[in-house]
Amino acid sequence: MRICVYPGSFDPFTEGHLDVLRNAVSLFDCVYVGVLNNAAKRATFTPKERVQMIERAVSDADFTNVKVESFDGLLVDYATRIGASYIIRGLRAITDFEYEFQIDAINRHLQPHIQTVYFMANPSHSFLSSSTVKEIGGYGGNIRGLVPDCNIKMITERLMNQ
Ligand code: PNS
């Protein structure tokens, strides 16, 4: 059974993330979406809220081989715990490469048998990030098309009340 983990902050989960997840779902038997619970970083949404929003998007997309969880600690330890031999990451532009290159080097050092698989973002999402969503939504802009429809209301309300 080919198990992978798609890790991230997902604060919030975007259409770009969904696109990467769609690719992973078609290639792996089981995909864990791992929401990083980083107590040191102030996030807009709690890990529980992020998990709920991703679960809604997964259900709307009819993905049947996805489990959504939050994790803390090292990614490779989490991957080992759930039996994942692959990590999934998305690449939008060359600027992502430097960061991903570093993460990959660290993870390989810690756990050489876990491989990272990268999916190039759909060009229509190359500008899209969670920060962009927060910037636009925070100014009352329309975030439709940037995040899954099922989460627009929750995200807009939170960003407007910040
Ligand atoms: O969506 P992000 O914020 O770019 O995801 C970063 C993430 C979650 C993949 C990375 O921060 C991570 O794996 N954190 C867990 C701690 C860890 O394993 N650190 C070593 C590799 S950087």
Structure description:
The chain has 162 residues and is an alpha/beta fold. The protein is built from six helices and five strands, in the order βαβαβαβαβαα. The chain has a five-stranded parallel beta sheet, with helices on both faces. Strand 1 (3-8), helix 1 (15-27) and strand 2 (30-36) form a beta-alpha-beta unit. 4'-phosphopantetheine (PNS) is lined by residues 7-9, 36, 74-75, 103, 106-107.
Gyration radius (Cα, Å) is: 15 Å
The description of the largest β-sheet is:
5 strands, parallel
What do the pLDDT scores average to? 96
Q: How many helical elements? A: 6
Looking at how many chains there are and whether they match, the oligomeric state comes to: single chain
Q: Which runs of at least 5 residues are low in confidence (pLDDT < 50)?
A: none
Q: Compute the separation of the termini in Å.
A: 43 Å
- Helix and strand content put the structural class at alpha/beta
Choose one word for the global shape: globular
